[in-house]
Amino acid sequence: MPALIAGERSAASAGRRFRDLLARPGLLRMPGAYNGLSALQAKRAGFEALYLSGAAVSASMGLPDLGITTIDDLCFHIRTCAHAADLPMLVDGDTGFGEALNAMNMARRFEEAGAGAVQIEDQILPKKCGHLSDKRLASPEEMARKVAAVAKARRDLVIVARTDAVASEGLDAAIDRANLYLAAGADAIFPEALYDADMFRAFAARVDAPLLANMTEFGRTPFLTAAEFERLGFKMVIWPVSALRMAAAAQADLYRELAETGSAKALLPRMQTRADLYATIDYAGYEALDSAITASVLPAIDE
Predict the structure, then answer these.
(1) Which of 19, 47, 169, 190 could form a disulfide with 165 if both were Cys (CB 3.0 to 4.6 A apart)?
(2) Which residues contact 183 (CB under 8 A, 6 or more apart)?
(3) Burial category of 151 from C-beta neighbours within 10 Å (exposed 0-12, middle 13-18, buried 19 and up)
(4) Mean confidence (pLDDT) of the chain
(5) Residue 188's beta-bridge partner residues?
(6) Is the pLDDT of residue 95 over 90?
């Protein structure tokens, strides 16, 4: 029976469920999902948590990842994914959408929308993708104050503090920042744009907290498997924009084929079938629920 409208949803908050997953042995794997269908597909593949990337959200809106999107934009996508898949989600909160009060508002809004965890970074606006050059950073103290503000505002929300300091300040400074953010109330640390396995290993040796690895394509991170990240001492791994990149490339091929030939027939083997789509979204379950409800409320007619 469809969980979305039949009430069969998790009783615990998304934050509590995310914490429970972190407390388990082993690596927590979180693929990026950016709409309800991708969230359902990830769940169907066996994943227990998801990642909502600000870059994926902005790209899906036809915008660059420069801090242009709003809290409302992110909340719409959080609700869509949470309602579809009912999985705890780590959400990209960029720089907190402003200063301390803005970050507190973000935490409350995200949690109300269904987020299990929030990622907040130490760049300043206009922010950039973590794998680009010339990023500008807040001072460690400014970022720590923002983390503390989010910790004060949250209920069960897990706080993942991201530092982009490696590129401009070096590994030692990034580690110092990470430990300061933990003291301010962060639950986990996301060191962005580490570029070799030794850096991942060194970070894990000197920061006593759950650590997140970003396995993004076309960036500075070397291609490592989930098992390799776990052996290096990391607790979480995300593939933030992989699903959107795959979908976007496939869509570009489709539009090119339609423009050139006037038909999509040649691409049928690459398309999701109607049967698979209906299985993913539980079409039959919704139909059955609708029929059962309709039948149960029909009034008796006296002859």
Answers:
(1) 169
(2) 144
(3) middle
(4) 92
(5) 160
(6) yes
- Give CA separation, 250 vs 210, 243, 244, 270, 272, in Å: 35, 11, 10, 9, 11
- Residue the block writes with tokens 């409350």: 108
Query: Distances in Å between the alpha carbon of 280 and those of 89, 275, 284?
Result: 19, 9, 10
Question: What DSSP state is assigned to residue 104?
Answer: H
8 A C-beta contact, residue 249 and residue 236: no
Q: Which CATH number fits domain 12-241: 3.40.50.2000, 1.10.150.130, 1.10.260.40, 3.20.20.60?
A: 3.20.20.60
Give 157-168 as a DSSP string. -EEEEEE--HHH
- 171-183: pLDDT as tens digits: 999 999 999 999 9
**Residue 95 to residues 92, 105, 132, 160, 240, Cα–Cα distance (Å):** 9, 13, 16, 12, 17
pLDDT tens digits, residue range 22-56? 999 999 999 999 999 999 999 999 999 999 999 99
**Structure tokens that stand for 167 in this block:** 């590129």
With residue 100 as reference, give the H or E element that holds it: helix 100-113
Q: Is this prediction's pTM over 0.70? A: yes
Phi/psi of residue 160, each to 5°?
-110, 110
Distance, CA of 235 to CA of 209 (rounded, Å): 9
Query: Per this entry, what is the length of the chain?
Result: 303
pLDDT at 125: 66
Residue showing tokens 């950039």: 128
Stretch(es) of the chain classified as CATH 3.20.20.60: 12-241
pLDDT of residue 303: 43
Q: Which residues contact 53 (CB under 8 A, 6 or more apart)?
A: 32, 34, 92, 238, 240, 241, 244
